[in-house]
Amino acid sequence: MKQTPQQNQSEPVATEVDQLREMLSRDQSKRARRLLKTMHPAKIASLLERLTPQQRVDALHQLDARTEPKVLSYLSTALRTQLAYDLDADMTQPKNGASPTDGRVDEEPETQLRLVLDALDQGKLKRIARLFHTLHPARIAGLLESLPATERARVWDMVEGERTAKVLRHLHEEVRRRLAAEMDLEHLIEAARGLEPDDLVDLIQDLPTATGRQILDAMDQRERERLQSMLSYPENTAGGLMNMDQVEVRSNIKVGTLLRYLRLREELPPNTDKLFVIDRKHRYQGILRTERVLTARPETSVSDLMETDFEPVPADQKSDAVAQRFEQEDLNSAPVIDAEGRLLGRITIDDVVDVIREQSAHALLGMAGLDEETDMFAPVLASSRRRAVWLGINLITAFLAAWVIGLFEGTLQHVVALAVLMPIVASMGGIAGSQTLTLVIRGLATGQLGSGNTRILLLKEMGIGLLNGLLWALVVAALAIVWFGNWTIGGIIAVAILLNLLCAAASGVVIPLLMSRIGIDPALAGSVVLTTVTDIVGFFAFLGLATLILL
Question: Membrane-spanning residues where (predicted)?
Answer without folding.
Answer: 388-408, 414-441, 462-485, 491-515, 527-550
